[in-house]
Each structure stands twice: as structure tokens, then as C-alpha cells.
């Protein structure tokens, strides 16, 4: 296992020097942020990122994300040129020493929460989801926390229109088409693809989502069995779906999990939850059982603390403050050490 930490590049308010001071963290997870979706990342840009990290003693082996162009998800004829660009990105990243690429296949929206600064009793704050607040949102007049600037209202309307008629089956077929097309490049580049689960793992605004449950992953791995086709085990995303049994899924897919996003959430009703500090005691997910299942199943990928709270007066990008994620990295590192040593001992008995 390698413990990593997400870094939003030179504009991140958290400098690499601080990340380096979190003991147990060997590298960062980052991306090229100034190239439009669907265009090739030039070697120089990737090399520069890697250089910046190495200069501070950190590895740069995981990219999160190389986003997938909507035309690929829509299955338009223009997809082939975007797929070519994606392949080229993989080859370029591989040459720069990247080993794992995280991406998602959610139409239009990435993660979705209704509150970015839900205030806890102790004064800290985190992201939260409320079904009632979600139902009040109007996709034709959208003011979504974290997403307001992603598309103009008219761009969004155009995109939603294009998705009319894209069923779950079509979206899944488009995902398989994409993966089959990029696998040779991923293999050549020595890159493990790690699809990020849908967050939340159900359809939103009438848009289909196909990567959120055990059945979805079974179907995906059956359709594209290449070893380079793997997953990001994001506990916060999968865990938002109460139908998902996370320790069971962690055990089942451990060898296909190339990247683990470990975070906690606490349900306050059947549907509503807030995110919290990483420890098992602080939420509804048994982080210990998940880590144990991963290690026991032979997981040997990258780990990062995922969303944390804003604590100690920090006012960082929601979910991506320094302090709570650093505490998360320390907690998770401890769990991995304990679980690994226990399992070794059990084996030698
Ligand atoms: C991340 C996702 O912050 C987050 O919730 O886990 O945004 C993730 O980076 C993307 O879905 C991966 O493509
Ligand atoms: Mn995640």
C-alpha cells in the first residue's frame, strides 16, 4: 500500500512542503488542470508536475482525474477523436512515471452534495446531503453547491437535452466501448485504470448512472477483463448507497482496487448524511472492516484520505483541507499497519 494525498497543483492553498510533513505519505495525487476536457496533456506539463513533486521528495504516480469527454459518454461519432486524445494522454502519463489513473463515467455531474459547509456541534464543518434539499433543485435553473460555475445555464440545458434517450444500457455500452478502445494504450503505458464510483450511486436529474453497485462492477469487469481495468474504491460514494455492503465488496474486488478513497459518512436518516472525520467511531461506515477486507484480499494499491472536515478555523476547499485529511492519513496508516501485522501473525500460526 502507498499512502497518498490529493494536491490540486501549484494553485492549491496547501503547499507540497506541508504534505511532505505528513508522515507515512509517499506521494501526491494530482492532475493537469489547465487543459480543456478532451485535449491532450503535453508531456512538458506532466513532466513539470512530476518534477515539482519529486523536488519536494514526493512521488507522483497517480492522476485524478483524466476526465472523459461527454461525447464519449454520449456515444457520439465524435467520440473516436476524444478517445484518441485519451490514449495519447495515457501514453504521455506513462512515460512520466504515472502508474494509476482515476476517472469517472458520470454524465454531466461529478459528485453531488446539497451543503458544502454543514456545521457540526463542535464547530467544524463538512459536506452533507439532504434528499429534501436535493428535490428542491431545478436542473433548468441550477445553483448547485460546488458546481455553479461548471456550465452556463444554456450549456447545461443543451447537454441535458443530448442525454435524452441515453438509457442505462447505452451508457454502459459506451463505457465498454471506451474501455476496450483505451486498454491497449493503458497496457502499453503500464497504467492501471481505476474507475471512480458514481457519487451518489443513483441517477440524478434523470441522467443515468451505471457504476454504483456490486452488480455494476461485476458487469463491468466481465465485459472488460483486462487487468488494467480496475476500480477506485471510494467508501463515501459507494457508502451513500445503503444497498452496498462495503466490506463484502472490498473483499471481492481487493485485487482490482488500484486506488482506495477512504472517507466516512454518517447517516442521520434513511437518505440524509453528513461527511465526517475518518475513524469508524465517527460515522456509519466500518472503516476498519473495509481496510481489513482489502488487505486480506490482497489489495496492493494507492490509498488516500478522501473528503475531510474543515477544522481548527481552516477555510479550505470543501472536503480538501489539510488538517482533517492529515489526521485521516495518520488514522488510516495505523489501521493498515495493525491489520497487516495481525494478518501476517494469523498466517504464521
Ligand atoms: C472525488 C471525485 O472529491 C471527490 O469526491 O472523489 O471528485 C473524483 O475526483 C472524481 O469523481 C474522479 O473522477
Ligand atoms: Mn472519491
Concise summary:
The chain is an alpha/beta fold and 349 residues long. It contains twelve helices and twelve strands.
Compile the SSE list and pairings.
Layout lengths: L1 E5 L9 H5 L4 E6 L12 H13 L3 E6 L5 H5 L4 H17 L4 E5 L10 E5 L5 E5 L1 H5 L17 H10 L5 H22 L2 E5 L17 H10 L5 E6 H5 L6 H8 L3 E6 L1 E4 L5 E4 L10 H10 L5 E4 L17 H26 L1
Parallel strand pairs: 1-2, 1-12, 2-3, 3-4, 4-7, 7-8, 8-9, 9-12
Antiparallel strand pairs: 5-6, 6-11, 10-11
Helix pairs in contact: 4-7, 10-11, 11-12
Question: Can you walk through the features of this model?
Answer:
- The protein has an eight-stranded parallel beta barrel. The protein has a four-stranded antiparallel sheet with strand order 5-6-11-10.
- The chain has 349 residues and is an alpha/beta fold.
- The two termini are 24 Å apart.
- The protein has helices at 16-20, 43-55, 70-74, 79-95, 131-135, 153-162, 168-189, 214-223, 235-239, 246-253, 287-296, 323-348, and strands at 2-6, 25-30, 59-64, 100-104, 115-119, 125-129, 192-196, 229-234, 257-262, 264-267, 273-276, 302-305.
- It has a single domain (2-348), classed as TIM Barrel (Alpha-Beta Barrel), CATH 3.20.20.
- The longest helix has 26 residues, at 323-348.
- Helix 1 (16-20) links the parallel strand 1 and strand 2.
- The structure holds D-mannonic acid (CS2) and manganese (II) ion.
- Manganese (II) ion binds at residues 196, 234, 236-237, 261, 306.
- Manganese (II) ion binds next to helix 9.
Amino acid at each position: 500500500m502507498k499512502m497518498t494525498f490529493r494536491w490540486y497543483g501549484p494553485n492549491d492553498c496547501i503547499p507540497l512542503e506541508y504534505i511532505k510533513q505528513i508522515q507515512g505519505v509517499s506521494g501526491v495525487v494530482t492532475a493537469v488542470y489547465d487543459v480543456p476536457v478532451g485535449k491532450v496533456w503535453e508531456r512538458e506539463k506532466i513532466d513539470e508536475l512530476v518534477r515539482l513533486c519529486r523536488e519536494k521528495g514526493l512521488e507522483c504516480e497517480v492522476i485524478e482525474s483524466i476526465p472523459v469527454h461527454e461525447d464519449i459518454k454520449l456515444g457520439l461519432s465524435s467520440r473516436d477523436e476524444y478517445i484518441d486524445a485519451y490514449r495519447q494522454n495515457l501514453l504521455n502519463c506513462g512515460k512520466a512515471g504515472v502508474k494509476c489513473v482515476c476517472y469517472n463515467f458520470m454524465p454531466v455531474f461529478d459528485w453531488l452534495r446539497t451543503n458544502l459547509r454543514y456545521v457540526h456541534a463542535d464547530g467544524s464543518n463538512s459536506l452533507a446531503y439532504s434528499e429534501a434539499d436535493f428535490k428542491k433543485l431545478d436542473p433548468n435553473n441550477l445553483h448547485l453547491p460546488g458546481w455553479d460555475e461548471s456550465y452556463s445555464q444554456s450549456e447545461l440545458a443543451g447537454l441535458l437535452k443530448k442525454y435524452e434517450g441515453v438509457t442505462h444500457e447505452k451508457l454502459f455500452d459506451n463505457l465498454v466501448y471506451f474501455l476496450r478502445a483505451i486498454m491497449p494504450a493503458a497496457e502499453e503505458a503500464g497504467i492501471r485504470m481505476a474507475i471512480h464510483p458514481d457519487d451518489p450511486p443513483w441517477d440524478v436529474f434523470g441522467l443515468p448512472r451505471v457504476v454504483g453497485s456490486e452488480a455494476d462492477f461485476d458487469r463491468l469487469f466481465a465485459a472488460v477483463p483486462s487487468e488494467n481495468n480496475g476500480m477506485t474504491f471510494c467508501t463515501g460514494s459507494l457508502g451513500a448507497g445503503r444497498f452496498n455492503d462495503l466490506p463484502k465488496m472490498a473483499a471481492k474486488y481487493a485485487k482490482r482496487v488500484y486506488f482506495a478513497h477512504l472517507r466516512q459518512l454518517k447517516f442521520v436518516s434513511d437518505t440524509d448524511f453528513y461527511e465526517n472525520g475518518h475513524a469508524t467511531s465517527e460515522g456509519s461506515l466500518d472503516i476498519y472492516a473495509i481496510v481489513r477486507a482489502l488487505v486480506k484480499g490482497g489489495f496492493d494499491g494507492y490509498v488516500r484520505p478522501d473528503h475531510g472536515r474543515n477544522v481548527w478555523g481552516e477555510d479550505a476547499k470543501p472536503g480538501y483541507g489539510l488538517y482533517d485529511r492529515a489526521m485521516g492519513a495518520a488514522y488510516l496508516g495505523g489501521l493498515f499497519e495493525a491489520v497487516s501485522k495481525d494478518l501476517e501473525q494469523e498466517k504464521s500460526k
